[in-house]
Amino acid sequence: MDEPIKTLPLVFEEPKGPRGPKPKPPRHLADLTPAERKERLEELGLPGFRAKQLSTHYFSRLVDDPAEMTDLPAEQRDELVAGLLPTLMTPLRTLEADRGTTRKTLWKLFDGALVESVLMRYPGRTTMCVSSQAGCGMACPFCATGQGGLERNMSTAEIVEQVVAGARSLARDEVPGGPGRVSNVVFMGMGEPMANYNAVMGAVRRLTDTSPDGLGMSARGITVSTVGLVPRMRQLADEGIPVTLALSLHAPDDELRNELVPINTRFSVAETVEAAWDYARKTKRRVSIEYAMMRGINDQAWRADLLADVLHSYGDWGWVHVNLIPLNPTPGSKWTASDPRDEKEFVRRLEAKGVPTTVRDTRGREIDGACGQLAAVES
Predict the structure, then answer these.
(1) Which of 68, 290, 371, 378 is catalytic?
(2) Domain with CATH 3.20.20.70 in the chain
(3) Which of 324, 361, 354 is nearest to 250 (CA)?
(4) How confident is the model at residue 13 (pLDDT cuts 50, 70, 90)?
(5) Residue 129 a catalytic site member
(6) Per the residue annotation, which of 116, 158, 274, 290 is the catalytic one?
(7) pTM of the model
(8) Disulfide-capable partner of 170 in 114, 180, 236, 241 (CB 3.0 to 4.6 Å)?
(9) Tens digit of pLDDT for each residue in 54-70?
């Protein structure tokens, strides 16, 4: 299962426009290493040492108004900002829930593509849920994003900008609870992160690079999800970056998972769970098994027993944790959340077999909280 990603089905390839590859987002300092930022300015005929000042404004001071960058010479300021801090995305709508502590933003990218991010503030932490693709090519039938197909991959900087925008809102005291910082990032927004692997890993590095080269976050506060792209899961295990891996399993048997997660026809439940276990073994990081609870589809008690057996076959419970997700249904969909009694029994069955299990705290139902719902309405 170590074949290169290029052998995967065409669904992983980014769509091309009628005249070839689509235009790429403008280059931004978050796309570049510190050395590359310096080189970029020098290519533009500008002083390379200004790159560190621009990085400080972006990552440390969280400034987005050039007028506040007073350490830059006024006669060069616009050129410097255009060279390394081009506008990547524009907010179209921001919806709030949970008394303002949940904020969902719909962004318009430079080419008109729409993506979403969600800021969720809890006591003691703030989590940003970010998108990694405009749309998604995985075609999971219960997912609003998957039904729209893949438009394009996002750049590293477009991914990072979602987090920086959230950090600005917190620093400016725009979110109830007083000024704060982003402590956690989850790649669980629109798109399949492992299908945009290089950009996602670039974003992880920018988020964890020490200030002012990056945001200075802990890798242990970052979760990268996947529906099960096995070669990329194995590659992630060798990166040496201790992020949390979240596997969106949703069914413990191939027959049902083939329907719910079509990539399962390429990588079976056994192969996918084994890759997750291998990640935990190599990194010593516990893997999260994501399981969206769907009424009458995957929430039967016997499937809870089977899920426990599948996970147990790879060792004791120290390597894994099951996160049950009450499905946030999309309008008109046959896919809906499980009956609370069935959900409770599912939890009981898993816990009876010793599987650490939690039910995710659902937020944002009143603001089209499921990924892709807001973009689908807007488009």
Answers:
(1) 371
(2) 88-378
(3) 324
(4) low
(5) no
(6) 116
(7) 0.92
(8) 180
(9) 999 999 999 999 999 99
